[in-house]
Specification:
Elements (H helix, E strand, L loop, with lengths): L1 H19 L9 E4 L8 E4 L4 H4 L3 H15 L3 E7 L2 E6 L1 H13 L12 E5 L11 H19 L3 E8 L4 H13 L5 H4 L3 H25 L4 H7 L1 H14 L3 H25 L5 E4 H4 L4 H10 L3 E2 L5 E4 L7 E5 L7 H15 L3 E9 L3 H13 L8 E6 L2 E2 L15 H18 L8 H21 L7 E2 L2 H4 L7 H18 L13 H11 L1 H10 L3 H21 L8 H24 L9
Parallel strand pairs: 5-6, 5-11, 6-7, 11-12, 13-14
Antiparallel strand pairs: 1-2, 2-4, 3-4, 8-9, 9-10
């Protein structure tokens, strides 16, 4: 559409000079997609021109439309509705545009931009397995990374692994007390799930101790602080920070179990990382920055020795960056880690943090402090904030063991895909490996698409049954359309061709316009860090293809030129579906 707008704008500039005696900049002309209830392909907004024309909107629209019709051969007709000029474009122009992308093997791919982005996502705790909430985070981060790459950018996929703190000590302590030397190998339990099991066990014991203390007359708030299990975990953390050999060795052992489990989960997700940061390495980063900030007046010290940043002038509050005992807080660590990353990647254009919206305030503060410290690149930092994933049963709680485990959910989705596909009789004659691969592709595609199609900022409800449906705005619906185009091209034995002399019917034209919109859509998805734009574009593309397929003969079409064009447009539909889904981190099967 951009080239079309440029063509029309160039003609309109001549119109403005001839009729109004005005030399107007190209951005004067405002366009939008023509509404479905009106005839036309592109609409010019007339209202901004009324101060120049000194006429009413409809009269001005008629005047412009008549000029375009006489001076621009690609304009075949027009109509004016109030302040909107709906312009219809010739079939030959659309066919020429389609032929260009049809012959372009790299259509949709952008030239290298020279820009590098770091995208942080996942960033799990090493005291529990990944769950449904992590899935939305991981799929978002991975899809945004792929979409940025499709726009020609270099991307570093990264995560910071939260491998220290009181939560880690809780799992370690529970294993020491009740683990009976269990290991992933001895139990057959995945490493992250084994450690998560003991995190839940700790919470159960902790609650029992609180109840006992309360029963003996202690206030609940005090009981929560003085429960023996919590005191023991705090002591273990102190020993770890002091470098106690026995605690450190247990910490390394149990973390290694978790990493092995995470690796298996990421493999099933088809997700990988380029750079890992560990909180155990970074938690002291930033302390030296505090000293620098104090000398610059960015931070101030209170009477108790704690260090703060005053952000009240910016409408925020005072933020602690160093405790009175000299220990760092999460903000201090994040400041240091951000600086470290820019040292690692000095040519980085931007850093994107994929973190839930409960941390919105934290990132406002982080970016503002970095800016106050004089780091120009702070303005390139972005918080990819996303809403919580809800379930019909309510909110998930890790320490109570009421989460939807990521591994279990992915396995269930693959099993549901197998069940649905078997019911349709689509798996006959296939080997066990072929059946597994197809069902894995469908099940994972259903899960990823369902979590990505919603605007990241919105809270969402996950419905597994709805996500696997072959009808509606789902991954399998889109995957099935791809297999249809793939089958058609195999039967045709050719990818078709384009003759610009043919005429387009309504369904052909709608599909063609949707195909041409792919490049602009991938740009918008990258600019807004929103894979939902690409997901919903692909759904609309598939709907228009299904309409085209139902309303037109393709392989049985007698007119050879029309037949070849319909094969070509089917080929391009399949190609763009596959490319769009790949950029969402979703594979497509060759058959379903």
């Amino acid at each position: 559409m951009q080239n079309l707008e440029q063509k029309i704008s160039a003609c309109l500039n001549n119109f403005a000079k001839e009729v109004y005696g005005q030399d107007l900049p190209l951005n004067t002309w405002q366009y939008q997609k023509t509404r479905k209830e009106f005839d036309g392909d592109i609409t010019l907004v007339v209202f901004p021109l009324l101060r120049i024309s000194k006429k009413g909107p409809e009269q001005t629209g008629e005047e412009i439309g008549n000029y375009l019709n006489e001076h621009l051969d690609i304009v075949t007709s027009y109509n004016t509705v109030k302040g909107f000029l709906n312009i219809e474009i010739s079939d030959s122009y659309w066919l020429e545009s389609f032929d260009t992308i049809f012959k372009d093997e790299q259509f949709g791919a952008k030239s290298p931009s020279g820009k590098t982005y770091l995208v942080e996502f996942s960033s799990p705790n090493t005291n529990k397995p990944l769950h449904l909430g992590h899935l939305r985070n991981i799929f978002l981060g991975d899809a945004v990374s792929s979409i940025l790459e499709a726009n020609g950018h270099e991307v570093v996929r990264t995560q910071i692994i939260n491998d220290r703190g009181i939560h880690i000590c809780k799992s370690m302590l529970a294993w020491q007390k009740a683990g009976l030397n269990e290991t992933p190998e001895s139990t057959g339990i995945k490493g992250d799930k084994l450690v998560g099991k003991y995190y839940v066990e700790f919470d159960k014991q902790y609650k029992k101790e609180i109840a006992a203390l309360v029963e003996n007359g202690m206030e609940k708030d005090e009981a929560e602080k003085k429960a023996p299990s919590l005191l023991a975990a705090q002591e273990m953390l102190r020993k770890w920070e002091a470098g106690d050999e026995e605690v450190t060795e247990l910490w390394k052992t149990m973390n290694s179990w978790v990493y092995g489990g995470f690796d298996d989960t990421y493999k099933q997700m088809d997700v990988s990382f380029d750079k890992l940061y560990y909180e155990s390495d970074t938690y002291l980063l930033g302390k030296s920055v505090v000293d620098e900030g104090l000398s610059k007046g960015v931070f101030f010290k209170k009477e108790d020795g704690s260090v703060w940043c005053d952000l009240t002038a910016e409408g925020l509050d005072e933020k602690l960056v160093l405790r009175s005992d000299g220990t760092a807080v999460y903000m201090t660590q994040d400041i240091g880690t951000a600086i470290e990353r820019y040292k690692d990647y000095p040519n980085m254009k931007g850093m994107i943090y994929t973190v839930g919206n409960e941390q919105d305030y934290h990132f406002k503060v982080l970016f503002l402090i970095l800016k106050k410290l004089g780091y120009e690149w702070a303005k390139e930092c972005y918080h990819l904030s996303y809403g919580m994933v809800d379930l019909p049963s309510g909110k998930m709680k890790s320490r109570e063991g009421t989460v939807v485990d990521a591994d279990d959910l992915m396995a269930d989705m693959v099993q549901e895909a197998k069940k649905s596909t078997e019911e349709l009789g689509k798996l006959e004659g296939l080997s066990d490996q072929e059946v597994h691969d197809i069902c894995d592709t469908i099940g994972m595609g259903a899960l990823k698409y369902y979590l990505l199609k919603v605007d990241p900022k919105k809270r969402m409800m996950f419905n597994p049954e709805e996500s696997i449906d072959l009808q509606g705005n789902t991954g399998p619906f889109i995957q099935y359309a791809y297999t249809r185009t793939n089958s058609l091209i195999e039967k045709a034995g050719t990818s078709g061709s384009v003759d610009k002399s043919i005429s387009l019917n309504e369904s052909e034209k709608e599909l063609l316009l949707n195909l041409l919109a792919y490049s602009a859509t991938i740009e918008t998805a990258a600019a807004e860090y929103n894979p939902g734009h690409l997901a919903n574009y692909t759904y609309e593309l598939v709907k228009s293809y299904n309409s085209f397929y139902q309303n037109n003969m393709v392989l049985k079409e007698e007119d050879e030129k029309q037949k070849n064009f319909r094969i070509a447009i089917s080929y391009m539909t399949g190609k763009i579906i596959k490319e769009a889904m790949r950029n969402l981190g979703i594979n497509v099967p060759q058959r379903m």
